[in-house]
Design brief:
The chain is about 65% helix and about 5% strand.
Length: about 950
């Protein structure tokens, strides 16, 4: 299959043209062919097909056109030449299957022959190259804006090939063809001085001196009129030679070699790491070697101080010898409060470095950009455009053709360059811990090896940000006798790093990004400093801002674009610790105290009501606390089913753990203990007892401070359960007694019953079975008074387990069967799982192994469906016991391995007990006596 773009868009297969369908399908194909065998982002395709006004159904429409194009090109559904890839579509194009690639290949060979003084071969190759052109690029299609730069670059390459061909024709003596071709070229491109020079030389050599001089007058008039400039020195010299009839020298003198600028600034010797980023930059060289042509642009972005400039300059120095025409560099100071370097000023510096006298440099940005592109079109240069403000800032500085490589650094993500100019993106994160330690060692020498722990603390406390590490390292270097641990201690207090960086001018550098924000985004940045971390969602940001989600979404994009936030997972944003501290300092000094208080309340209200709704879905049988009334501004959606609730908890777990503590610390005690209750509904089934202990300790202290006895009783009970699971049985018992007293004083039967149910478990764990049964009977009575049938069923199961533990298996089965019947009626899946586990245990000890296996397996499925990993692992252990008892040791081993892995994932010490079982089983296989349960 061959693709033709240098003229009307055509596709042929075995010489036969393929119908391409609608205009939209043809535009889709053209856009994919502009980047053959590369993923073209969906945004680029949408811009190509619909411009700035896509329909509401744009995604479905794009899929329809893609499906139609696949059908046109591939015939049947088995063709895989145009797959959907992550973020866009890709068209697989074999080598030399496009006329663009064939043109570039032949033009390159022609230029190489011309440089080797072989004009005959040059004529042959350049003629072959230009024969690929059948008209304008994509003639007959209205070019969308997104394809204009690409098409313009192709036209520029055609003009250069025409000029190279004319030079070869002149050298071969084919003067008439050279004159004819150059007349056509200057008619459509009247400012191309090289083409005019070839035309003048051809006319002179055929004896038309008057025509040559008239051509000079024509180009001079055009240049003065359009640019205000006289012709360049080479054209002016040719004019003088013709005037003086220097026929032996006209066009034969070798011009002086063009300037070779080498503008790369000095680099520091302590560059470390960044191997992946270096490899990504190295790949740009492969795009522009002897087999390829076209400008390659890489946009390096990241937060302030992350090392973008250092990386770009280190790599540029490393590969400078690959660019025979030199290197250009400019610091655009895109975020410098002292003033941005304009594109016009940068262009003036560039064209001067390339040998254009000051008097010949046009005044306008567009004219300078055109001159600059002309100068670079036949050169291979390395350009480092450092610290650009945005895509518009840097766009006039980009070459239009040639084989140059451009590195742009910016705090902005430069998405415009990616979309319109096909730039590759390279986003820098902070250094790894190992790279950070190497950077310190480079700067501080043996002091790092002498105090490795202190050095590791410094690395952690600076957040592995290169700028922060450099400032701290300079401070350490100024005090060679001070121990490193003293500097680490200096960095530990909250906000200390920001104070240290102020001495190194780094805080001012951070402020440049902040000052570049819109007023609304700057306010959001400050308020996000109130978020406890470690990451946040759009909904949370909207709650802090007190604004609708749709108005906050573009503000988050603005913060992300400038790398003040990072979207590290889809929909989840995070700060670097230094930027969080900076935002916190700004909110303290800028926002009124009442505004800060209101923002905190909105955020805790957001957390509580979403967590409460999720908890009710995850644990529908738990008697729910009555939450603080929802604020009028809290209008976001909550999870709609248990699966969505579990997913929400998984994403927000770390945020909620911190929010419980933060709410308590800032005087929102009720939010704190109620949020702790909701979070425990998720933590308990996972066996996350340490986290449950932490949040309930915070909840208890908060409830005590506010005098909230309901919250105090709840926290005592849930803290006792965590303590009992963690082995602190005495402490747990004291808490349960305290909870019982509080519930009795409150006259709360349900709370008393729940507490007694937990007491049953504690008494069982401490071997007091008779007392456990007594508490169970009282819990049943109180559940009956409060009408809580779900609680009754769960306590019946607990009592059944106690009977099994005493060896009374029929009584156990009776209690558990009654419990299971009620739980099935109520749809209590987690309760059913626990009861089936108890039944399995009783059936096992009655040697009813088949019924035991059936009960265990159903329990495991139910535990798994409710994400109760802890109890699933417990039941797996018991299922393994039954498998072993029935003579299936291989199955028992596999089941225990799964259980051990689950306990390991939960950091639960039960994993060791399971491994003892496995060791015993394997010992039995080797002939020793196993420990049979």
């Amino acid at each position: 299959m061959r693709f033709a773009l240098l003229g009307p868009l055509e596709v042929t297969l075995d010489g036969q043209r393929i119908p391409l369908g609608s205009i939209k399908q043809r535009l889709l194909l053209a856009t994919l062919l502009s980047r053959p065998s590369e993923t073209v982002p969906t945004g680029v395709l949408v811009a190509a097909l619909w411009g700035e006004d896509p329909p509401a159904s744009v995604a479905a429409n794009l899929r329809t056109y893609a499906r139609g194009l696949r059908g046109a090109l591939g015939g049947d559904g088995s063709w895989d030449g145009m797959p959907y890839t992550r973020g866009g579509y890709l068209l697989r194009v074999p080598p030399l299957a496009t006329d663009v690639e064939r043109f570039d290949e032949a033009a390159f060979r022609g230029r190489r022959a011309l440089a080797a003084d072989d004009p005959g071969l040059a004529c042959e190759e350049l003629s072959r190259a230009l024969a690929e052109w059948r008209g304008r690029v994509l003639e007959g299609l209205a070019l969308p804006d997104v394809l204009v730069p690409w098409a313009t670059g192709l036209e520029e390459r055609r003009c250069h090939a025409e000029e190279d061909y004319a030079q070869a024709l002149l050298a071969e003596g084919d003067l008439s063809q050279a004159v004819r071709r150059m007349r056509r070229l200057v008619a459509s491109h009247p400012l191309r001085q090289r083409a005019w020079g070839h035309l003048m030389l051809g006319l002179y050599r055929v004896g038309d001196v008057g025509g040559a001089l008239e051509a000079y007058r024509t180009v001079r008039d055009a240049l003065v009129r359009e640019t205000g400039l006289e012709p360049g020195p080479e054209l002016a010299q040719l004019h003088q030679d013709i005037l003086k009839q220097r026929s032996t020298t006209v066009g034969s003198d070798s011009p002086p070699p063009p300037p070779r600028p080498q503008q790369l600034p000095l680099i520091t010797p302590d560059f470390v790491g960044r191997e992946e980023a270096i490899a990504a930059l190295d790949s740009s060289l492969h795009r522009t070697d002897d087999q390829m042509s076209g400008v390659v642009i890489t946009a390096v972005s990241g937060m302030a101080g992350v090392g973008k400039t250092t990386l770009a300059l280190h790599w540029a120095h490393r590969v400078a010898d690959r660019f025979p025409d030199g290197q250009l560099h400019v610091d655009l100071r895109g975020y410098d409060e002292s003033g941005v370097v304009s594109a016009s000023d940068a262009l003036q510096g560039f064209v001067q470095a390339l040998g254009v006298p000051q008097a010949r440099i046009p005044s306008g940005t567009q004219a300078r950009a055109g001159l600059f592109r002309s100068l670079l079109a036949s050169r291979r240069m390395l350009m480092v455009l450092d610290n650009a403000r945005d895509s518009a800032h840097v766009r006039p500085l980009l070459p239009g053709a040639g084989t140059s490589v451009v590195i742009v650094t910016s705090r902005d993500r430069l998405q415009g360059l990616v979309t319109s100019e096909g730039a590759r993106t390279l986003t820098l994160d902070v250094l790894s811990a190992q790279e950070s330690a190497r950077m310190l060692a480079r700067r501080l020498g043996p002091r790092v090896a002498a105090e490795p722990d202190a050095a590791a603390d410094i690395v952690a406390l600076t957040g592995r940000l290169p700028l922060a590490l450099a400032v701290v390292a300079a401070r350490v270097a100024n005090h060679p006798t001070f121990p490193l641990h003293s500097f680490a201690a200096e960095l530990r207090p909250t906000g200390a790093l920001l104070d240290v960086l102020e001495d190194g001018d780094a805080q001012r550098i951070l402020s440049w990004s902040y000052l570049a924000l819109s007023e609304e985004a700057a306010r959001l940045f400050r308020l996000l400093g109130l978020h406890p971390g470690p990451d946040l969602t759009l909904d949370a940001a909207a709650a802090l801002a007190g604004a609708p989600v749709h108005s906050v979404r573009p503000l988050l994009r603005e913060l992300t674009r400038l790398h003040l936030l990072t979207e590290h997972r889809p929909g989840r944003h995070r700060f670097h610790d230094l930027l969080r501290t900076y935002a916190t300092s700004l909110v303290r000094t800028t926002e009124p105290a009442s505004g800060v208080l209101q923002a905190r309340e909105r955020f805790y209200d957001h957390c509580l009501h979403r967590a409460h709704a999720a908890a009710v879905l995850v644990q529908p049988q738990w008697p729910a606390v009555v939450p603080v009334p929802r604020l009028p501004s809290n209008s976001g959606e909550c999870a709609r089913d248990a699966e969505a609730a579990l997913e929400w908890f998984a994403g927000e777990r770390q945020v909620l753990l911190r929010a419980v503590a933060q709410a308590a610390a800032y005087g929102f005690e009720t939010y704190s203990w109620q949020l702790a209750w909701a979070l425990t509904a998720y933590l308990a089934p996972l066996g996350q007892w340490q986290d449950q202990r932490t949040v309930q300790e915070t909840a208890l202290a908060a409830a005590e401070r506010s005098g909230d006895e309901v919250g105090e009783a709840m926290a005592c009970r849930l803290l006792a359960r965590a303590d009992s699971r963690l082995g602190a049985l005495d402490t747990a018992e004291q808490l349960l007694r305290r909870a019982l007293g509080l519930y009795e004083r409150l006259g709360e039967w349900n709370g008393q019953a729940q507490t007694l149910h937990n007491y049953v478990e504690l008494c069982y764990m401490s071997g007091r079975l008779a007392q456990a049964l007594e508490h169970g009977r009282e819990a049943l009575r109180l559940y009956g008074l409060s009408g809580n049938r779900d609680g009754e069923a769960r306590t019946l199961n607990a009592m059944g387990w106690l009977h099994a533990a005493q060896g009374d298996y029929p009584a156990a089965i009776d209690h558990c069967t009654r419990a299971l019947e009620r739980q099935r009626q109520a749809g209590d899946r987690n309760g059913q799982a626990a009861t089936l586990d108890s039944l399995g245990f009783a059936y096992h000890h009655l040697a009813s192994y088949d019924r035991a296996v059936t009960s265990y397996e159903e329990a495991i499925e139910l535990f798994r469906s409710s994400a109760d990993r802890y109890h699933e692992a417990e039941t797996l252990v018991r299922l393994g016991d039954t498998k072993l008892a029935t003579g299936r040791p291989a199955e028992a081993e596999e089941i225990w391995e799964r259980a051990a892995a689950m306990f390991d994932a939960l950091w639960d010490p039960e994993a060791d007990a399971v491994r003892e079982r496995l060791a015993g089983l394997r010992g039995m296989a080797e002939g020793s006596d196993p420990l049979v349960p």
